[in-house]
Amino acid sequence: MSRFGEPQDAAFRRLNDSISFDWRLSPYDVDQSLAHAAMLAAQRIISAADEAELRRGLEVVRGELADGTFPFAAGDEDIHMAIERRLTEVAGPVGGRLHTARSRNDQVATDVAMFTRAHAHDAGQRVARLARTLIEVAERHLDWPLPGYTHLQRAQPVYLSHHLLAYVWMLIRDRERFAAVVAACGRLPLGAGALAGVNFDTDRHAVAAALGFSAVAENSIDAVSNRDFVLDYLAAAATCATHLSRLGAEIVLWSSEEFGFCEVSDAWASGSSIMPQKKNPDAAELLRAKAPRLVANLSALHGVMHGLPLTYNKDLQEDKEPLFDSCDTLELCLEAAEGMISTITFRADRLAAAASDQFLAATDVADLLVRRGMPFRQAHGIVASLVRTAVTQGKPLSALTRDELVAASPLLDDEFYRLLADGAWLETKVSEGGTSLRRVREQLHHARQSLR
Ligand code: ARG
After folding, report:
1. Is 99's C-beta closer than 6 angstroms to any atom of ligand 1?
2. What is the distance in A from the centroid of ligand 1 to the CA of 4?
């Protein structure tokens, strides 16, 4: 019997059905149903014999879902109803007992929490793997100088290891964020029923323990309405993808002939259909471009949740596609970043040539004057005038004459020329977190410790 006198409109079905995407929840749905049935039997809400039949049936259904033989039916609205329908076909009328003391509202919240937890855990591992790869590349290029940039203008030289480690720290923070998402998935919604709790003395803690939740949601209304953990995953994923976009963007710039700092391996590049000389860093470009899509997924779910009255509303079905898309996109991007970075080659000659630009030492010359007693602001002005003289005459700072130096400041002597000799300006960056080799080695050690 049905409450309805008319069949559903075909367009309504297309709008309302979620089976086309929520089939991905099926392994979690089966696990959840097994734990639920076991609890119902332990609490004597269903018989042990019924539970055994449900378990056998659910294992058959799990096998069909796993090997692709599960017979989806035209009327299946979502994965929960499809599994219960099939269970009843396989096990008989006992299948109808599975939904005792459960609603699709607490069921779907539980499946989504389990899915999110698994993918947050996976993202944390992928992030750590990429961070370790970056550490290895940093170690291989420990003392390769390159210009550091501000405003995309050459600013001060740094070691390539130091630059790459900047990304490692972003990823270490991403890993912490994903660990927080795992924790946010830790309270079991199941047992809330439709919204008010259920008319049976269930044991929610037993179900929580069986499914790896550390606690149960305290409020049944909150339990069926809460999607904070999805927002948390989407936010962590958006931030992580934003980090990858900055890495990708730098690889794109650096692999241009104008920079010429690096070359991505052939496995991570593509050619042009018309220009035979081209080797394009497409993977890096796509890392750059994917981030806004993950931000949009976060924004979409914020839009769904905004102002949504308690408790369950069908709006909540719109949590899944943004979540699935962010998981798929982020996991692929992390895998690609890992592959691209582990096979990239850096060009020592080009990096060294760019890093030996003497104007990068301007701050260091100013600090020389500071060490001789001059206030920094005044030293800044004097070095600016020296730079201007050199730029106007089209020569490097070291080609300024002694007379030109002394005219700018009597405090300047041969130490000026010594300071401009190769590399000296990196090893003087001795402050904690700076680019001198001793500090970079320290940093490498801390990064490795953080990833343990
Ligand atoms: N497909 C639904 C969803 O994803 C499952 C829950 C349906 N609950 C309901 N009361 N209609 O949200």
Report:
1. no
2. 18
Task: Find all residues with CB under 8 Å of 87, minimum gap 6, and list them.
Answer: 33, 54, 57, 58, 61, 95, 98
- Ligand 1 pocket check for 29: Cβ under 6 Å: no
Together in a domain, 201 and 228: yes
Q: What is the pLDDT of residues 398-432, one digit of tens each?
A: 999 999 999 999 999 999 998 887 667 888 899 99
Q: Mark whether 284 and 223 lie in a shared domain.
A: yes
Catalytic site residue 26?
Answer: no
Ligand 1, atom 12: nearest CA belongs to which residue?
A: 317
State residue 423's pLDDT score: 60
Q: How many domains does the chain have?
A: 3
Note whether residue 292 is domain-resident. Answer: yes
Any domain includes 449: no
Query: Dmax of the chain from CA atoms?
Result: 103
d(CA 202, CA 205) in angstroms, rounded, equals 9
Active site residue 409: no
Kindly report whether the peptide bond that precedes residue 311 is cis, defined as omega within 30 degrees of 0.
yes
Instruction: Please indicate, yes or no, whether residues 178 and 50 belong to a single structural domain of this protein.
Output: no
CATH number (domain holding residue 169): 1.20.200.10
Distance from Cα 17 to the centre of ligand 1, integer Å: 9
Question: Whole-prediction pTM value?
Answer: 0.95
- Which atom of ligand 1 is nearest the CA belonging to 314? 12
Task: Tell how far the Cα of 26 is from the centroid of ligand 1, in angstroms.
Answer: 14
Residue 340 lies in a domain: yes
The mean per-residue pLDDT over the stretch 135-158 comes to 96
Range with the poorest average pLDDT among 44-53, 234-243, 267-276, 321-330 = 267-276
Can you give the pLDDT at residue 360?
Answer: 86
In which domain, by residue range, is 426 found? 357-435
**409: Cβ below 6 Å to ligand 1?**
no
Percentage of the chain surpassing pLDDT 70?
99
| Best probe residue, ligand 1, of 78, 79, 84, 225 (max atoms within 8 Å of C-beta) | 78
The DSSP annotation for 265-309 comes to -GGG-B--SS-TT--B-HHHHHHHHHHHHHHHHHHHHHHHHTTPP
CA of 88 to the centre of ligand 1 (A): 20
